[in-house]
Amino acid sequence: MRNKITGLKSLSFFCALSCGTEIVFAHEYEAYARTAIGTARAYAGESARSDDASVSYANPAAIAKLKGVHWSGVFHVMTFNADTEDVSADYANSSSVKGDSDSNLGGLFGGPSFYYVTDLDKDWHFGISVLAPYAYGTDYDREWGGRFSGTFSELVVFAVTPSIAFSLNNELSIGLSLPLNIASVEFHRGLNQAGRCIGLESDGSLPTGTCVTEGLVLNADNSEGFEKVKAEGWGIGATVAVHYTSIDDNWQFGIVYRFGETIALEGESQYRGVNTVISNQGQWLASDVDIDLELPATFTVGGAWNLNNQVTLYSDITWKHWSDFKGWAIEYEDSGNPDQRYSVDWGNGMRSAIGVDFRLNSQWILHTGYAYDNSPVKNKHGQSPLVPAADIEWYTFGASYQLSPTQRLSFSYAFLDYKDAIIEQNSDAPYIDEEVFLSGEWSMSLHLLGVQYSAEF
Fold first, then answer.
1. Dihedral, CA atoms, 36, 38, 39, 41, nearest 10 degrees?
2. Measuring CA to CA, which residue among 55, 5, 1 is closest to residue 384?
3. Who is most buried in 37, 323, 436, 455, counting CB within 10 A?
4. Which is more confidently placed, 400 or 445?
C-alpha cells in the first residue's frame, strides 16, 4: 500500500489552490517559499536587498530604501518526491508491528504571498506582509508500520506582519515588525490498545488475563483504535533589524534578529474504536488539550555587492535556535489520558547561501544561487517521523523582466536535494506512556517554481 507525506499544506489559510493538495517540506517547519526573486537566489542576500516590497518580512529596516508605494504578489508551485525504506516498529516486549515498510511518496502544492510598502513621511516607512512563514505536514497510510508513532500531522502558521522603519540618515535605517501569528496543528495516530491493556494489567488496574480474554493482542484487528488531536492559538512575535547602504550605493548590508516565541494552543482530542476495557478505565476519552508551539529565534547577517554594472553578489548566513524545540507535548485536561510527547532531539541549525545577479540589458536580469541548510537533528535517535529533518542543498536560478520603469516580473526554479533522513528511535520513546522502537530511512527531493509581480507608484 502507498504511504503519503504531505507538508506546507498551505502557505496561507486563504489559498484556494492548496486545499486538498499533498506535499512535504520535511526540514524543521520553516517555510522558505516566500518570494520568487528570493527563491531564484537561494534566499541569499534577503536581509540586505531593498529592491521591492517583499523585503518587508525579510528585513523591516530595508523598506526605508523604497520610496513611494510598492507592492508584490507571489505565487509558488512545488512538487515533492520521496521514498521510505526498511521501516519497522517494535515494542519493549519485542512484539513487531505489522504494516508497510517501503513506500513511494509525493505530491503537488501551490500558494500565494502578498507584500505592501509605503512612505509615511521622509523618515518613517510602513509595510505589511501576508504569508505562512511556518508550515509542514506528514500524511502516512493508516496501515504503515509506524502508525503508533503517528499517521498524520499538520502545522500552519499564518502571519499578518506589519513593519515600521525609520531612516537615521540616507545610508542607515532601523526597523521593527510585529507578526500576528495564527497557528493550527493537527495530529492523528493509531492506538496500541494491546500495549495499553497490558500496562493496566501490570499496575493492577485490570485483572491478569483480561487482555487475552478481550482479544487485545498486538496486530489483532480489534486491538487498534484511532486518535485525532486538533488545536489552535495565536501570538504576537517581534523582529528587529538594521539596514545599511553605502554612500556610492555599491553595497548593502543587513542584520535581522527574529525573537523566539511560544504560542499556547488549545483544542481537543477525539477517538474511534476504543475498547470499553480501556475507556472504562478513563483512558482515551474525548478531552480538551493544551499544546505549546515553539517558533525559533533566528539571527541573520547578509550583504549585497555590485561588483560592476552587470554583476551583483549576494550572501546570507542564518543561525536558528531550534534547541528549545523538544517535540510536541500534548497535555490532556479532562480525562485519565497520560500526557504524551512526540519527541525530537534537536540542536541549533545554520543556513548559508550565496547568489549572483547578472544584468543582460536594461530589461533582463538573470539570477542564480546555492545554499546549504544544516539539519538541527543531532543524530538518528533524535529523529521523528512526524518532522523528518535532513541537511538540504539548494540549487536555484531564475530571471527578472522589467515590464516598465515601475513594473517587474520575476520567475524562479529551485531544486532541493535532501540528504537521507535516518530514524532510529530507541528507549527515548515517542510517547511518555509507551515504549516503541521505530526505524527507517527517508529519501527526499523538492522542485519549486515561483512567479512574482512587483510594482511601484
1. 130
2. 5
3. 37
4. 400
CA–CA dist 189, 132 (Å, integer): 26
Give tens-digit pLDDT for 181-233.
999 999 998 888 888 888 888 888 889 888 888 888 777 777 788 999 999 99
CB atoms within 10 A of CB 2: 12
Angle CA 243–248–251, to nearest 5: 45
Bridge partners (DSSP) of residue 226 are 190, 272
Residues contacting residue 414 through CB under 8 Å, at least 6 positions apart: 39, 40, 42, 394, 395, 396, 446, 447, 448, 450
Other C-beta atoms lying within 10 Å of the C-beta of residue 240? 15
Residues 161 and 168: their CA atoms lie apart, in Å, by: 23
Do the beta carbons of residue 134 and residue 31 sit within 8 Å?
yes
| Structural domains present in the chain | 36-456 (2.40.160.60)
Cα separation, 370 vs 315, in Å, equals: 10
Q: What is the pTM of this model?
A: 0.86
Contact 60, 177 (CB under 8 A): yes
